[in-house]
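For the sake of transparency, this paper describes our internal protein records without simplification. Such a record has a labelled line for the sequence and another for the backbone structure tokens. Nothing more is needed to write down the fold, since each code stands for a local backbone conformation. For reference, a complete record is included directly beneath this paragraph.
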Amino acid sequence: MLPTQPEGYISVIATNFLHPLSKLIEASEEFKSNGPNEVQASALENGYSISIILLSVLLTESALSRMQYRMKTSSPEKPLAFIRKNFEEDISDHMEEVFVLRDVIAHNHIWEAKVFWDEDGEMRLLEAHLSYGYGDNKFRKVIDTK
């Protein structure tokens, strides 16, 4: 029987990502990859991977938002600030890497590279650098561009 009295409801989208994530993971496991070359992974493999990463980070951000709400945080903090304040340093450092990866994907950091194809038709990397204006302090702290 349905309740007849009003009830409280808190919106959280985190769990809504679970089914799509599991489907993407299943599909990516069925995909037969030859692995990346020196420059890039295949568009299909890359597409699955970045989709899984982005949805996973969105799920994490939603869960952190819910956690802050349950902890009655007066004003929600940015995810990394909240993690640094409430979790061990090791976890915070790993999560910072995850959020940098999310930023690289979501903001489409542009890399410029010089490549060539060898005698076997394989793409080879000569040099690469991040285009001017991409990346922030978090990125520079986490990523060794060399």
Remarks:
- The beta strands are 111-117, 123-130.
- Residues 43-70 form the longest helix (28 residues).
